Amino acid sequence: MKKFLSVWVVLLLVAVGSATAQTQPQSSHYKAAETLLLTMGSPKTIDDNLQQMLTMQMEQVPAMKAAEVEVRSFFSKYMNWDAVKEDLIKLYMDEFTEKELKDMNTFYQTPTGKKLAAKQTTITMKSAQIGQSKVEPHMMELQQAIQKKMQGDN
Known about the structure:
By secondary structure, the chain is mostly helical. It contains eight helices and no strands. It starts with a helix and ends with a helix.
């Protein structure tokens, strides 16, 4: 169970896009990244994604259900907007120029941009479900390949 949770935490961090370097809050590039994330509704999206992922995990691993309140509290404490904001701003600054960030912000202020931002959580979750539905029927094949490899390495 601990191993499963550890893997899940790593995957969640990657999904959120955590970065590690410090940022310079005064720069216009920083402000452009922060503005874009706020315009896209990132604080709400992060919380929505987290809650949906936790709900899926509770359904897939019923043993977690007994500690649902504690698990949700833990992730809400360490994976909330305030906890990831600086890392996400740094990530966007690393990936996009200030002009690109401003251009994207302009897009996300349009009706189509607002719709994309509002649908992003649903698209992300449905995409994960599609991936899972493609892999799940073939898990035995993967398990056999891993087992064969492990037996060959002994």
